Amino acid sequence: MSARVDITMTLNGEEIVETVEPRMLLSDFLRDRLGLTGTHVGCEHGVCGACTIRLNGVTARSCLTFAVQADGARIETVEHLGTVSSLGRIQQAFRKHHALQCGFCTPGFLMTVQEMLETLPLDTDEEIRDALSGNICRCTGYEHIVRAVRELADEREGAAA
Amino acid sequence: MNELPRKTQGLGDEALAMARPKYVGKAVQRLEDPRLLTGAGRYVADIRLDRMVHAAFLRSDQAHARISAMDCDAARAMPGVIGVFTAEDFADIPVISAPSRMRDYRATKCTVLAADKVRYVGEPVAVVIARDRYIAEDALALIEVDWEPLDVAADAESAAHSNAPLLHEELGTNILFERVFETGSADDEMAAAPHRVSGRFRIHRKTPLAIEPRSYVAEPDRANDGLTLHGSTQVPGIIRDILSGLLDLPGNRIRVVAPDVGGGFGGKGSLYPEEIAVCALARKLARPVKWVSDRSEDLCSTSQGFDETIEAELGFADDGTLIALKGQVTGDVGAYSIYPWTAALEPVQVVSFLPGPYRIPHYRGEVKGVATPKPPTGPYRGVGRPASVFVTERLIDMAAAHLGIDPAEMRRRNLVSETEFPYRIGSGIVWDRSGFAECLDEACSRVGYEGLRRLQQEARAAGRWFGIGIATYAELTGIGSRISVAPGMPINTGTETASIRIDSTGAVTATFAVASHGQSLETTLAQIVAEELGVRPEDVRVVHGDSGATSHGTGTYASRSAVLGGGAAIVTSRVLRDKIRRVASHLLEAAAEDIETGDGRVFVTGTDKSMSFAEVAHAVYSDMKALPADAREILEASESFDPVTGTTTTATHIATVEIDPETFAVKIGRYLVAEDCGRMINPLVVDGQVHGGVAQGIGAALLEELSYDRTGQLLTGSLADYTVPTAVEVPHIDVVHLETELPGNPGGFRGMGEGGTIGAPAAIANAISDALSPLGVGVTELPVTPERLFRLVSEARNKTDTEK
Fold first, then answer.
1. Chain B, 738-767: which have a CB under 8 Å from a chain A CB?
2. Are B614 and B668 within one domain?
């Protein structure tokens, strides 16, 4: 058994100090060690995007990242976006447009959309679809997700919603 | 908007409508969303229990082989490993077999772990239980199996030969069932028909691919010698019933709970060996056992779907009138006949629905299912109908082209018309009134069909490959007790029960045996109960997916839950509302007929007398002076609903495609669905179901294929190889709703969860064929990948060159 490693990270604004095996995946660390089960694991090979988190502000596949790689990093997960009694803006738009069905891929989409809104112009729906294409949703056919992001992008620009 | 009128005196119809608002038909925001959006849902993989241990399965890497020896000693000796178990450790569990009353059906026998031989790559042969999943997987690598490879007949055609290697020697054949459907005299009429078109069609194997992989946690109840299985299943009731027998536990000591489930699409609708294994091991070890599938396991162990070859011929008259249809369906059903649906489910549906929504007096359909060394097939969204609609709609287009009739007009001339319902098609299925022609006409009108045809002429003149495809279909949904969902299956799937109670605080809880896994049933069933009882949807707590909460009920599949669950919600709410009115008649000193409910209150119409549900509940349960003893009716009701035969749902899909002449990539332009699912409970939810179904149909048409080589090895074992549609491949989808009436059904709801997947493959195949019709190319094989298209076009061009 390989030696354990001490890691420190800022997770959803809170400082975390833990000891992990070097091979422990960040997704397993978040879910099984810290009990933050909002980050879901759909494929464990980096294709489906359900496990998407933000690592130092950039989206990352937590299933393709070792927990030790997050040492010293700032991590945000879906738990950071809002609560049941006070949904965040992206979550509200997803609810309004019925942009989720089973909800399993949703946390990954929300993290991706948050980054998209911060970094991309999203002038056209094609751009939105392109930016969403790293996340797989098997339920919605994406139509309602695109509508939710459209509303959020327009609102960001101050356009009439 | 729905505030109570300040004065209830003289409550007329208008005021009553305000007090008791309609929720059915409204785009009510989903009640399940807040928890799912915040990561507060509870899927099986999220469950952590005290003393819980983890399972990992060793799976066969051979398609057909004898296990001559297995050495688990090194794995057992590994620190952190609690045990390694093989077939003999499960010897006390009866063999799994899916019975059917169907004639000429041969059930297979399947053990929890493969005992002496394996029959597909991915079949479980051993299970390691360890302190954590990492250690369990480490230990798998230390198990040594000596295989004695056996001959492999990897496809249905070779496996059907009389000299093929047998998967199940005791059956003496690989053919698990054969069946013929016949109406009229198809052979004679076909021979005499003025025109005929025919083809050999192929649809390749798919995986349902829910984004949540299958997962189970078995939790022993040591105090009661019982067990709770937390499972990512669509059918907790079915699993409870079969496990009760397999584990020899009465139903009151075994409970199957489907918590939040991350999609199913049929793949979580059957009994699995892993489900039984974790339960048996949890009892043996007296501690919770968890297994979460990884994606590669999911791709080779979850039930697969749609794997048929269909030879079909259509005969018709000079004016396009259809005369006769013949079809021969060969289904590649995989290694075992799956419980409870049997291997017949998918191929028999193909042959049953081949005549489609058309008037075809003469039909002969033959079907056989052949066992092959691949994972078992089971239900996948659409079951059989994506294949049958693909074939029939291609034939209709081929016939139209043959006669020079427009494809829309060809359909119009042959669709069963309003005066002909109920209409029995050649396979025996009876179509009830549904908007067949209305959907076609509405789709053509909304999409601007004539305009699209003009665009096509311009595109063709410019040398572009632009095509328009139509698919019109009908499906049987919400199937009642008179019809078996799967042929001859001895399980009742035709009824559902609702139990609704008002507790001593006045709160409403409605319990169903359906199991929502994305269908929004916590919202739509709450809308129905709220409207019928006179409360708000957010005041109704819907309990579902818990076998411990109901006496019977099978779950959510086959587009049944809105019809059966919704019907049960209505009839039960009405019984309960009558109880409330009788009780309130004492409390408000009025006749029960004069009492109405709305917005959580009980009123006497025409007076200012009213009280809250909480006050009524207090009077019934707590204030023993409020009511005479014989008027204290417990505020609970439980009623069943049976739609007897079921409901007929229909739609027309229209797609346009353009094919890149260099890459052979297919780009979908317009996509429109005009559908008739009767009265909608929640239009946003209906739209979402249609969109999602169409996306899966697009996958079936263009991308998705589980590819096996001649030795039975899976070549598409990751999501890099098995590609599904992303937001880029799925176009904007327009949905138009026709809500034709459904007499004799309390809610007027038709099932609609699968339709998108049923129509899309055919519409896209027709659009591509239409685009390439100048080359004489027609699509007969799905998915029609760029490589297949390139070959079709090259063959057509070579043929043209040769003819020159």
1. 756
2. no
Query: Which of B269, B301, B333 is at the close of a domain?
Result: B301
Domains along chain A? 5-80 (3.10.20.30), 89-157 (1.10.150.120)
Q: How far apart are CA B723 and CA B745, in angstroms?
A: 41
CA distances (Å), origin B345, targets B235, B299, B306, B311, B542: 16, 20, 11, 19, 31
pLDDT digits (tens, 9 = 90+) for B349-377: 999 999 999 999 999 999 999 999 999 99
- Are residues B231 and B367 part of one domain? no
Q: Do A104 and B263 touch (CB under 8 A)?
A: yes
B185 DSSP assignment: -
B369 exposed, middle or buried (CB, 10 Å; 0-12, 13-18, 19+)? buried
Domain boundary among B127, B152, B177: B152
pLDDT for B800 beyond 90: no
Among left, alpha and beta (phi > 0; psi -120 to 50; other), residue B122 is left
Total Cβ atoms within 10 A of residue B520: 28
Segment B41-48 mean pLDDT: 98
The pTM assigned to this predicted structure is 0.96
Q: What's the mean per-residue pLDDT of chain B?
A: 95
Say how many C-beta atoms besides its own lie within 10 A of residue B660's C-beta: 13
Q: Which residues of A touch B48 (CB under 8 A)?
A: 32, 35
Please, what sign has the CA dihedral across residues B562, B680, B476, A99? Answer: negative
Complete edge-to-edge strand list for the sheet that includes strand A14-20: A14-20, A5-11, A74-76, A52-55, A58-61
Both tokens assigned to B174: 């690989």
Q: Distance between CA atoms of B374 and B372, rounded to whole angstroms?
A: 6
pLDDT in tens, B116-173: 999 999 999 999 999 999 999 999 999 999 999 999 999 999 999 999 999 999 999 9
Using CB atoms within 10 Å of the CB of residue B31, give its burial: 0 to 12 exposed, 13 to 18 middle, 19+ buried: buried
Which residues does chain B have within 8 Å of residue A23's beta carbon, measured at their own beta carbons? Answer: 134
> Based on the structure, what is the number of domains in chain B?
4
Q: How distant is the Cα of B298 from the closest Cα of chain A, in angstroms? A: 9
Asked if the model's pLDDT at residue B14 lies above 90, the reply is no
Separation of CA B563 from chain center: 14
Any domain includes B194:
no
Does residue B33 sit at the A interface (CB-CB below 8 Å)? yes
- The helix/strand count (H/E) of chain B reads as 20, 29
Contact at CB, B38 and A91, closer than 8 angstroms: yes
The pLDDT, as a whole number, for residue B19 is 60
As a whole number of Å, the end-to-end CA separation of chain A is 56
Which residue segment(s) compose the domain that B739 sits in? 308-482+644-803
B443 and B519 share a domain? no
Q: ipTM, 2 decimals? A: 0.97
pLDDT value, residue B8? 36
Length of chain A in terms of residues written: 161
- CA–CA dist B448, B470 (Å, integer): 13
Q: Any idea what the CATH number is for the domain that residue B521 is in?
A: 3.30.365.10
| B745 pLDDT higher than 90 | no
pLDDT tens by residue, B567-581: 999 999 999 999 999
Cα–Cα distance for residue pair B213/A136, rounded to 1 Å = 14
**How far, in Å, CA of B367 to CA of B310, rounded?**
9
Q: Say if residue B248 is in the same domain as residue B390.
A: no
- Of residues B470, B356, B358, the one with CA closest to residue B763: B470
Q: Which chain A residues are within 8 Å of B36, Cβ to Cβ? A: 100, 102-103, 106
Is B198 contained in some domain? no
Q: How far is Cα B499 from Cα B510, in angstroms, rounded to an integer?
A: 6
Compute CA distances B466 → B354, B402, B457, B470, B694, whole Å: 28, 20, 9, 14, 20
B575 and B453 belong to one structural domain = no
How many cross-chain Cβ pairs, A to B, lie less than 8 Å apart?
191
